[in-house]
Write a structure and sequence with these properties.
Length: 216
């Protein structure tokens, strides 16, 4: 009985010691696990915050640089407004029908475009509204009826350039272009000026065109 009592007392003593020590062990283990475990979500949030902070600072720096550049650069005039203030261009053809022309100015009555309104479709005359340099182009197509056909571009009453077409058995096409410096109110037009005996021009309407535009 004495031995049993001694063993029982030893067991109770050990149990009491372990009970006293176990809370300390559990606490240290929990602390270690907390330190070891890595939280990916927290790390991502931290990284995202740092990136956003850097981006905000870069935006502020760029805005500051833009303000400094605006102070140093003198704004240029708007080229579109400058061009539109004196823009002139037109394009027209004779008519929807083919017709015989023996002499005189050609009236290109079908206007495709007439920017600035300087071309008169009733007279076939372009009148310069401002001083400048203009490009004019005229093209014609004739039937076999017209053995010889000469068209001339006139600046005022001056012969600038001409085209010549001859078709023995079919169609003939011809064209020319000129760059002319015009003063205000000066006129340009195209006329039939064939010097030959058989000089009537049987022009194909939609294929006979007159165009021009201001370049300077």
């Amino acid at each position: 009985m004495a031995i049993f009592a001694f063993v029982l007392s030893v067991v109770m003593l050990v149990s009491t010691g372990l009970a006293a020590v176990s809370p300390t062990i559990d606490e240290k283990l929990q602390t270690a696990m907390t330190e070891v475990i890595v939280n990916p979500e927290k790390e991502y949030e931290c990284l995202l915050f740092r990136l956003e902070d850097k981006l905000d600072r870069m935006k502020e720096k760029m805005a500051e640089m833009e303000r400094e550049l605006k102070k140093k650069i003198t704004p240029l005039p708007n080229p579109t407004q400058a061009v539109n203030a004196s823009q002139y261009a037109f394009s027209a053809y004779l008519s929807d029908k083919n017709a015989l022309h023996t002499s005189g100015s050609l009236k290109y009555t079908k206007t495709i475009s007439n920017v600035g309104g300087a071309y008169n479709e009733y007279t076939g005359v372009f009148t310069s509204a401002v001083d400048g340099v203009y490009v004019f182009h005229f093209h014609s197509s004739v039937y076999a009826y017209a053995k010889h056909c000469v068209l001339t571009l006139f600046h005022e009453n001056n012969n600038v350039t001409s085209t010549y077409g001859y078709d023995g058995n079919g169609f003939a096409s011809f064209s020319n272009t000129a760059v002319i410096e015009l003063k205000n109110t000066e006129v340009v037009h195209v006329a039939v000026t064939s010097p030959f005996t058989k000089s009537s021009c049987y022009l194909r309407g939609r294929f006979t065109t007159f165009s021009g535009f201001k370049i300077a």
